[in-house]
Amino acid sequence: MSNIISCLVDSAYGKVGINIGVGVPVVTISAPPAGRYKIWGMCRHAIDDGLRLKIGSTVKATFAGPGLTQLVINPPLVYQLNGTEDIILETNAATGLTGLAAGTLFIQRQCEHLSEHIC
Q1: pLDDT by residue (tens digit) across 9-37?
Q2: CATH topology for 5-116?
Q3: SS (H, E, C) the chain
Q4: Do the beta carbons of residue 40 and residue 62 sit within 8 Å?
């Protein structure tokens, strides 16, 4: 049995305003070092279709709920990253004339050996 060491590696916040189209980044964490990561946070969107999380160019999860409801990304999502992929929370629907979208992401690297620990 191995001991897993965790440390907060990065966090980011972003928001976009009115008339923003589908697929527009709200929050981006650029290419964290290769490794296994827990990803969590919160987001909201004026439209029910919400936001989606992408690793590189692949959609991994969609967060939707009634418009302007705060959506919590919990339990954390766990992904193996290769060091070249961005983590992006982007619009899954256009914001419209009065809408907005916002989000916060946190990532935590999971290290199995003390020699991998980067904090």
Answers
A1: 899 999 998 888 999 999 999 999 999 99
A2: Jelly Rolls (2.60.120)
A3: CCCCEEEEEEEEEEEECCCCCCCCEEEEECCCCCEEEEEEEEEEECCCCCEEEEECCEEEEEECCCCCCCEEEEEEEEEEECCCCCEEEEECCCCCCCCCEEEEEEEEEEECCHHHCCC
A4: no
Q: Which amino acid is at 24?
A: V
CB 33 within 8 A of CB 80: no
Per-residue model confidence as pLDDT tens digits over 74-118: 889 999 999 999 999 999 988 888 788 999 999 999 876 555 555
d(CA 100, CA 114): 42
Would you kindly state where each structural domain of the chain is located, as residue ranges? 5-116
Rounded Cα gap, residues 90 and 105, in angstroms = 12
d(C-alpha 13, C-alpha 15), whole Å: 7
